[in-house]
Amino acid sequence: MTNHRFDQNIDSDSIDENFDSLEVSSRWTDFVSRFLKKKLGVISLIVIITMYTAGIFAPILAPYSYTEQNLERSLEGPSKEHILGTDRLGRDMYSRVLYSIRTTLIVTFAVIISGSLIIGTCLGLISGYKGGITDTIIMRIGDVFASLPGLPLLILINAALSPKINELSRWIDSNTFINGFQDSGAASYITIFFALSLFSWVGSARLIRSQVLAIRERDFITAARSIGIRPRRIIFKHLLPNISNLLILLISGSLGAIAGSEIVLTWFGVGVQPPAASFGQMLYAGSGARTFQAHPHLLLVPAFFVTMLMFAFNILGDALNDVLRRD
Amino acid sequence: MLVYTIKRLFWIPIIVLAVTFFTFIIGRLGPGDPISVASGQIRDPVLLEQVRIEKGLDRPIIVQYYKWLKNALKGDFGESYIFKGYTVSELIFPKMLISAQLGFLALLVVFGLGVPLGLLAATLHNTWIDPFIVSLLLFFRAIPVIVIIPPLLWVFAVHWSILPVGGWEGGIFDIYWLFDVIAIPIFNSHVYLPVFALSIGGFGGVARLVRITALEVKNEAFITTARSKGLSESRVMYGHILPNSLLPLVTVIGFALVGILEGAFFVEVLLGIPGIGRFTFEAVKSRDYDVILAMTVILSVMFIIINLIVELLYTKIDPRIELSDGNKS
How far is CA A299 from CA A84, A246, B154, B275, in A? Predict the structure, then answer.
């Protein structure tokens, strides 16, 4: 995964970031060209991008509002006006699917950026580079989180935190210039975001740490250290570029897991709260053998999109894994 | 080895303390403190205050935690707020038994079917069967439990009516007496759907892992050696490839258990099985905090211990793996 050019006779003077970035960019193009050969991987990437783009533009694409009820036309199958039918309250299923993708997208990206990328990567870098007591503390905390049953804890944390966050959002509404914070439903997003971030950093921190340990003793790092470069600069200028391809693996691996957690938590009733649309709620509303018998579209519509999304994430993760780990 | 084991054992109480403290605080931070949840419609502030003092809920949170911990160590997790008159332990343990039975069966299915299927795919690597199995496994891994159960229920319980819609009667087995002498245990019809639903995720994971390791092992030098000295193909498979492919499986037992446990939450709710998953669901819905707290603590301790055992087991099986405190690895 790492290249070996640095190993050969390198003098400390020539170490600068240009050299690093040059190395990285060549590896990136190589990486992209190898990924493009994986047909299934590319297809699933396209599926994910298409669905997510649809989610981003949900307000434009959706024919109805996701809260607009029409009780006279509830539980209808697909028709011209409602191409995926309507739910129990006569809300348009197609619009709700679009907004559900949007919900998943928001939660996933927020958690990945904060949990896996920022917290996880930083802790992994620090832990691997510093070693000693810092490393022990960080990794032991990670062990604690990793050895806990994640889902029950997430459920508990969400059940306990969400009213607090709700209170906070009401306070924000009445005491600051921001209005409509409560109505926007942002509170439940924030709760689930905190809870998921808490658990998502461990995997990335471990992966990054192991990689840092592998390259920490390499000559170019020793050289950098010997000419007196500060640790922070070494970590971010010399270590980080060398593990950047791992970050892709991390993102692709956690995308599916986090999206799944969000859906599952909402299904359990502790995730995103109504009126916000989420696949979890749609699936819950459609489950039940009798409901399924009478109105199969209630379950099949969200189930189709959720399965497709999860399937795409899995295949993409496998393809990236193959590409990155082959060497 | 011994030093390492002791070191790890030493960590267990610390981790458990941290986890319980963390969950306790979160539980108490929650809205509507336990007393107002338990009192329901009664809204007499004086009376509520009195009960609160009686239960020690007016004391600082550290004191409350200390008291709770002292009782919890004795196996007393307090009283349920919703099911009045029952202690949490009385409520939890019978339900745990049900979930444990199902989980154990599911674990057997996960490994009992996953391993042969993975090996089959690896053996037939160059035929169409391998990609077929692989995509099937991917599909199983991708399809969430909450998606698959309703259609299954509809097909088996409503449409064909060969399985019950859900619920839980009796144990895992029904005993049939053949000629009134030989007892044949047959799975209770309530068992099939939950066990299937619990095992599909882990089953795919195990099969994929076995396949990948078997393929890697296949290309190793010692396999070529084994072949070149004239061993039969089945001997190579069962004597050399199989044992070496099974090694990584030890590490997955922990993951498989976690998967089954998490699945239990959804499977039990959807199929109406009175296990801990469904119980937690109800406890969360009705904010029965002491139940949630007890559940979290019990599950956490269980998992910390399982993880430790798996880790020690792994090093025991594969002597190449050296134990370290994590500073150097």
Answer: 11, 37, 12, 25
